[in-house]
Amino acid sequence: MKAWIVWGTILAGFLLGRGMPARAQAQAGRQVAAQATAARQAPAPPAQPAAAAAPSPAASAPQQASPPPSGSRDPFRAIVIKRAEILPPSCKEPGKRSLIVGQLQLQGIARNVEGQWIAVVDNKTKRAYFMREKDEICNGVVTRITADSFVMEERSMDSFGRTRTREVVLRPADQ
Predict the structure, then answer these.
(1) Residues 142, 119: contact at Cβ < 8 Å?
(2) How far apart (Å, rounded) are the C-alpha atoms in residues 88 and 168?
(3) Could you write out the three-class secondary structure of the chain?
(4) What pLDDT, on the 0 to 100 scale, is given for residue 171?
(5) CA 122 vs CA 78, 125, 150: distances in Å
(6) What is the C-alpha separation between 80 and 113, in angstroms, rounded?
(7) CA 139 – CA 123 distance, rounded (Å)
(8) What domains sit in the chain, N to C, each tagged with a CATH number?
(9) Is 118 within 8 Å of 144 (Cβ atoms)?
(10) What are the per-10-residue average pLDDT scores of the chain (175 residues)?
(11) How many CB atoms lie under 10 A from the CB of residue 137?
């Protein structure tokens, strides 16, 4: 029972700011002892005025425990970064770079004179765009075009703030 009373008193002292942790108290005691030993061994300094000899209030105050190191994580901060809402990417550039992967519809695939595949896509504005491999769009890039598929790589941001990529395959509608 006495131990609980003692620990309760110590804890109350810490919470009210009247105490120091034992480790900090021991370290402060060692520093004072080292300073006293150094003062005894050093020659006496020349006389100083009485006003300068008075210790400052900051020097006489007990040392406070240091905050946790900067490399450690604050345990009270959320691990997951919450965003207000996930918005689709906003692309202000004209032409193909304004196209968003999720809004594209594949209308057809054709081969040009050089033998390269060209995909004909449109978005919600029903405007046709001719896409070739390695064409950049708003949130992705065209990776390959074959006779039966149009493949894009979509870039997006996850809830942790990291960039994620996924492959999106569009196929022409059966006729």
Answers:
(1) yes
(2) 16
(3) CHHHHHHHHHHHHHHCCCCCCHHHHHHHHHHHHHHHHHHHHCCCCCCCCHHHHCCCHHHHCCCCCCCCCCCCCCCCCCCCCCCCCCCCCCCCCCHHHHCCHHHCEEEEEEECCCCCEEEEEECCCCCEEEECCCCEECCEEEEEECCCCEEEEEEEECCCCCEEEEEEEECCCCC
(4) 93
(5) 41, 7, 13
(6) 51
(7) 14
(8) 1-40 (no CATH), 95-170 (2.30.30.830)
(9) no
(10) 65 61 58 63 57 53 63 77 60 88 93 94 92 94 95 88 92 72
(11) 25
Question: What pLDDT score was predicted for residue 53?
Answer: 52
Alpha-carbon distance of 116 to 146, in angstroms, equals 9
Structure tokens at 60: 């006489």
* Residue corresponding to tokens 């689709």: 88
pLDDT of 175: 40
Could you identify the residue written with the tokens 């004909």?
Answer: 120
